Amino acid sequence: xxxxxxxxxxxxxxxxxxxxxxxxxxxxxxxxxxxxxxxxxxxxxxxxxxxxxxxxxxxxxxxxxxxxxxxxxxxxxxxxxxxxxxxxxxxxxxxxxxxxxxxxxxxxxxxx
Amino acid sequence: xxxxxxxxxxxxxxxxxxxxxxxxxxxxxxxxxxxxxxxxxxxxxxxxxxxxxxxxxxxxxxxxxxxxxxxxxxxxxxxxxxxxxxxxxxxxxxxxxxxxxxxxxxxxxxxx
Amino acid sequence: xxxxxxxxxxxxxxxxxxxxxxxxxxxxxxxxxxxxxxxxxxxxxxxxxxxxxxxxxxxxxxxxxxxxxxxxxxxxxxxxxxxxxxxxxxxxxxxxxxxxxxxxxxxxxxxx
Amino acid sequence: xxxxxxxxxxxxxxxxxxxxxxxxxxxxxxxxxxxxxxxxxxxxxxxxxxxxxxxxxxxxxxxxxxxxxxxxxxxxxxxxxxxxxxxxxxxxxxxxxxxxxxxxxxxxxxxxxxxxxxxxxxxxxxxxxxxxxxxxxxxxxxxxxxxxxxxxxxxxxxxxxxxxxxxxxxxxxxxxxxxxxxxxxxxxxxxxxxxxxxxxxxxxxxxxxxxxxxxxxxxxxxxxxxxxxxxxxxxxxxxxxxxxxxxxxxxxxxxxxxxxxxxxxxxxxxxxxxxxxxxxxxxxxxxxxxxxxxxxxxxxxxxxxxxxxxxxxxxxxxxxxxxxxxxxxxxxxxxxxxxxxxxxxxxxxxxxxxxxxxxxxxxxxxxxxxxxxxxxxxxxxxxxxxxxxxxxxxxxxxxxxxxxxxxxxxxxxxxxx
Amino acid sequence: xxxxxxxxxxxxxxxxxxxxxxxxxxxxxxxxxxxxxxxxxxxxxxxxxxxxxxxxxxxxxxxxxxxxxxxxxxxxxxxxxxxxxxxxxxxxxxxxxxxxxxxxxxxxxxxxxxxxxxxxxxxxxxxxxxxxxxxxxxxxxxxxxxxxxxxxxxxxxxxxxxxxxxxxxxxxxxxxxxxxxxxxxxxxxxxxxxxxxxxxxxxxxxxxxxxxxxxxxxxxxxxxxxxxxxxxxxxxxxxxxxxxxxxxxxxxxxxxxxxxxxxxxxxxxxxxxxxxxxxxxxxxxxxxxxxxxxxxxxxxxxxxxxxxxxxxxxxxxxxxxxxxxxxxxxxxxxxxxxxxxxxxxxxxxxxxxxxxxxxxxxxxxxxxxxxxxxxxxxxxxxxxxxxxxxxxxxxxxxxxxxxxxxxxxxxxxxxxx
Amino acid sequence: xxxxxxxxxxxxxxxxxxxxxxxxxxxxxxxxxxxxxxxxxxxxxxxxxxxxxxxxxxxxxxxxxxxxxxxxxxxxxxxxxxxxxxxxxxxxxxxxxxxxxxxxxxxxxxxxxxxxxxxxxxxxxxxxxxxxxxxxxxxxxxxxxxxxxxxxxxxxxxxxxxxxxxxxxxxxxxxxxxxxxxxxxxxxxxxxxxxxxxxxxxxxxxxxxxxxxxxxxxxxxxxxxxxxxxxxxxxxxxxxxxxxxxxxxxxxxxxxxxxxxxxxxxxxxxxxxxxxxxxxxxxxxxxxxxxxxxxxxxxxxxxxxxxxxxxxxxxxxxxxxxxxxxxxxxxxxxxxxxxxxxxxxxxxxxxxxxxxxxxxxxxxxxxxxxxxxxxxxxxxxxxxxxxxxxxxxxxxxxxxxxxxxxxxxxxxxxxxx
Lengths: 112, 112, 112, 417, 417, 417
Ligand SMILES: Nc1ncnc2c1ncn2[C@@H]1O[C@H](COP(=O)(O)OP(=O)(O)O)[C@@H](O)[C@H]1O
Ligand SMILES: Nc1ncnc2c1ncn2[C@@H]1O[C@H](COP(=O)(O)OP(=O)(O)O)[C@@H](O)[C@H]1O
Ligand SMILES: Nc1ncnc2c1ncn2[C@@H]1O[C@H](COP(=O)(O)OP(=O)(O)O)[C@@H](O)[C@H]1O
What we know:
The complex is a heterohexamer, with 3 copies of chain A and 3 copies of chain D.
Chain A: E1 2-8, H1 13-22, E2 28-36, E3 42-46, E4 49-53, E5 56-65, H2 70-81, E6 90-95, E7 98-101
Chain D: H1 2-38, H2 44-70, H3 92-97, H4 106-127, H5 134-157, H6 161-164, H7 173-191, H8 212-231, H9 240-272, H10 277-292, H11 300-323, H12 332-346, H13 356-385, H14 391-396, H15 398-403
Helix pairs in contact in D: 1-2, 1-4, 1-8, 2-4, 2-5, 4-5, 4-7, 5-7, 5-13, 7-12, 7-13, 8-9, 8-10, 9-10, 9-11, 10-11, 10-12, 11-12
């Protein structure tokens, strides 16, 4: 199994969620994060003093998937999360050794 | 070493923490997240218009553990986080290549 | 590629960010988390009743890096995040199987 | 000694006027809190800015020209004579010689009137929230408070033609509230709904307000200020009859708001299944608007009923405007416009001197003029500088785009909607 | 001309009454802000709803029957005669013929009295917060404001038997504040503490309030409104003596609150080690409650001391009630009940006409009646519809369960407790 | 009957005084909200605590000694005689015999004056926010409200030497506002800027306020309260002339604030590129401070201009003080100090009786005395107990360190700055 971690733009969340649902994903976990990257923040003045808003709000998605689904699901994310502008985010894939569903104790693919 | 990532119901956090302490865990990191899954949200009316609250609040726990402790610790989580109702959450296990304690520079198991 | 996850003290974030930039890191993602560990919280009284503030605010950093950069970057974090006091945090390293840049579809090292 | 007594009466009435003015001025804070609680946090600084600025603009414009337009020295009943700035106050001799005709300070009158203009303008700001350009709004405020409001106000309160037609509107359900709502409606029609409010298949999406304690505080402030709004509109307190009248106005205003609140709360519970706080707040305000056209003649029980009907109307009106895709984030058009009409008509329930014809004439004249005049001004502003922020700014919030700061920089989370 | 002078006096007293009523009405906002700041955010919409609704219900019920019960035309000293709705106001002739007996508008009196009922009821809402069903509370409000409060109010202020016994309670430390706290106590006893407040081994867990600026604002509003509460209770301002009295009441009210605040703040610092803001707020309110039974006769320094003692009592009372597992999220029972008793007794320090016996009789009668009557009403409501939300709703918050919305939908985080 | 009329006048003036006092008291809430909105959330409980406590301390200290110092029975023009506690009030006989000299209650006067002291002290709390020790501040409050403010107040309003020199300051642009700002300046100089405010290479870092709706509410409260502040300073309302004067003061106060707000908003837009809400708020307050020294004689248009100049000054002053590394989180020194000076000088624009020399003498004397006296008191406190919290507490926030609680425990995120 694989754990897909995707950093996306917040306003793309709804689209990505639908795409994932369509791709057969039954569950996911999201976290509100801030990202630094090629997309730069902006500088504002507050009472005449400067402040940089350089960490941009992003949403971090975690989806655990079966090995064979990996590609279709990353494709779904790619298609739905892309706006084409800098800052669209990244997908990270790591290997998942074990999954357990707490409610039932089911493990691995059955737990997804 | 392994990294255990568990998604649990927020109100179970205290219990899970005690269970982990008893299982010998010395440190953990928690994040407030929202989860989509089999447990469905609910629809409310606000000024007559509908809105769906479909992302449910969850707590995400990260615990780095020694290989030999893995089972006892996932068991502790399973036992303490279970309410038996849908939405109890998941445990994900990934392999951890390296751990460093920032304060001392100690590495790996000594750093846990 | 590796995924470095570091838990640090919030007030060290700016320093760590500069250090990472100097070490050639182009992007990172941060999450506000709470940590339990050797650094203990404190007990306060509210209207005469006790409450323990035991989860301490921490910042969780995620940086995806090339294998060969791993050491220089963890060193940069170690140097910049250390205050020498208990609670400085940890660095966790996991293996990263795949990285995709959503905007362009570039993969792996090109996507970092 | 008789002179001293006249002086004391003059002083009492002036002081009463000023206290009522302070209460109405306070309503500006009420609108501000109400609106900033009912919008999303990303548009909060902008709505705060709009509200503080419109109050200031209203005060300045009314001083410069509005007050003189509304209470002109000359005029043909439709178009008032033009003059600028405020005149002097009554001299002691004038007061004594007037045989009770002059019984309060002119400047106290100005002070009381000026806070009414601000009220009318405040109504607009809520309806166009979360998508209108700040400076476009402020330009409109200049025209609304300097020209549009005063001219129609002159018709009724400045001895213009509506006064002649017997239009009866004690404290301004029509003249202030419906007028404000009408200007808002014109703006909203040109502006369109907020992005995401109405779905492609006719869905109506809720956009929850970000801070309901503030909205509730705003409602309480408005309720409190309304005692000045209606109570001051008796214009006198210094004898038994007028003192009794003021007391009755206070009691009726309070009961009408109470009736509106309870009705809207129960109705929302029945229709929506939950106790919708925001509807209860709107219900109370609806009760206040409903009684404003005639807070004196109804018996207290009738006042509660008039407010109750207002509270019922507002629930259906809010839902109905949403069906028509007229997007009004705070319900201002329903509360002040639709219920304002009800208020003007409800005068007929207890005031024998009012006529259906007079009331309808007033409503029609005010609506038509304010609507057309506002539409023209909005359209000109739209052509000249645009009235709507661009999509990206609307998405990321007007606060950054217009004001460069966040309302709650430390604890607002990113939202996915 | 003498008639005119009488009219002016009547007008001044009426106006003074109305201004004081506005200030007391404003206290409803104060309670709302205080309580919504001291509960958790997940129960905030519900407490807002409760507060706005109880104010409206109080106004309606008191108009329908409560006012007439409290100031009845007939009655045997214990049970007042029954009648409905408000009567007419004083005619000019009556006023002139009364030789100063009739010196203010009846409706102004109603207006002033009605906001007192709402105050008493507001006290209840804080104590039962975070676990009581919304509609059960509102049903109780109907009985409390329509029957229970007016009947015991009649005993003292409506020339009932407590008045005869010499019970002295200027603005209602006992009649309003302790009465409200007693009804709250009865409710809390039937309701039980919030889940998680008391641990299995006798721990007392803190449940921090979610928005302390709001709570502080609430305290300031209450302090401000209290000038009307106590100041208006002189019932007259139009001659030198009563004007001096009103001024003294203002000064003493202010100093007593100041004394309470400083004492509670210092005491909390000494006992708890930190400057507990919420204790300081409760201390100020305790000072206000303490002086309410007699704000006129104490010298200013004594007023500050009476308030200071109130501020000390409240700190110990809050801690003590927690030991008894009487869970009162905002400290209402301590502030209004325990300190209310102190206030009634403190009358003896400066008012020679009050007797220990009279004060004790008043406390006993009010407490016994309000407690028993409230307990019965609460019990009936409990049997009929339940008074406590179910566990899951209590955990996830009353806001979603009762009102279907969140107070701060954009920035409230999930909490693990 | 003539006696009755005198009584009514006395009653009206007393009542007017008390209503104005309530409005000024309310300003304490305004400062509290303004300041708690402009600091970071981690320092919010502390600033709330500071504000409620300073108000209470001001009331107690002024009752104990301050009032008597400011309006002493004896004194040489520079140093007032010493006495304690408040005296009795005017008897009816004294009033009747005084031929109009005694026309309001002494205690009403105390009530009005005491809220002024609190205002002066509130100014200090904002400037030293986010780094000063709570208890050090409260100790300073004891001296400021009990000694420093009253002594310099005596010079002008207690018939001291500045009164003799013709220093003209209607409601205290200098005596209250600049005095408060001067004490603040002395404190800030000893205290130093907040950590992180000024970078090593001369950068000036913004530290955004955490809750702008609260700050806006605070501004509205202050604006409202200022009607009492300036309006009450006429000291009389009971005849045609004084009633007209009070009305004019209300109108001018309102317009000056409006002028200040609009000017600061537009200026900020031009200079900074965005509509800076916090500058608009400061602009309104600057308008209020600017008109305070002379709200009576200017024509309304001039009042708006005086306020407008104040609004412009405040923008440049805030930026300028930052350049000088004088860190004032809420802009109190600019609003009350720099603009206070402008206000005192602006008297010369409309009041023929004022002289440049008199005004400069007043400014110099007040500034010099308050600055030196405050510096000494601050220095002594610094030596005795320290005035600045330690670095770690400043970083993690004063709330936990001083008060052991958070303002928004459920939704404040960790911040990295
Ligand atoms: N090396 C990295 N490690 C972790 N997160 C990253 C990394 N690079 C980028 N990110 C995340 O992806 C987001 C988008 O990256 P950015 O460089 O701005 O744009 P793009 O992905 O379009 O090139 C960043 O805000 C950050 O959250
Ligand atoms: N495939 C997945 N990937 C990541 N997180 C998941 C996944 N499936 C479920 N989750 C997380 O687990 C939580 C519980 O899952 P859910 O399906 O509702 O109930 P259960 O675990 O009892 O079957 C979700 O809210 C989500 O946060
Ligand atoms: N085993 C662990 N798994 C996950 N996170 C941990 C673990 N141990 C510590 N942490 C995180 O690191 C932070 C610092 O750890 P702590 O033990 O307090 O200090 P130190 O790292 O200096 O020994 C904790 O607050 C927690 O967030």
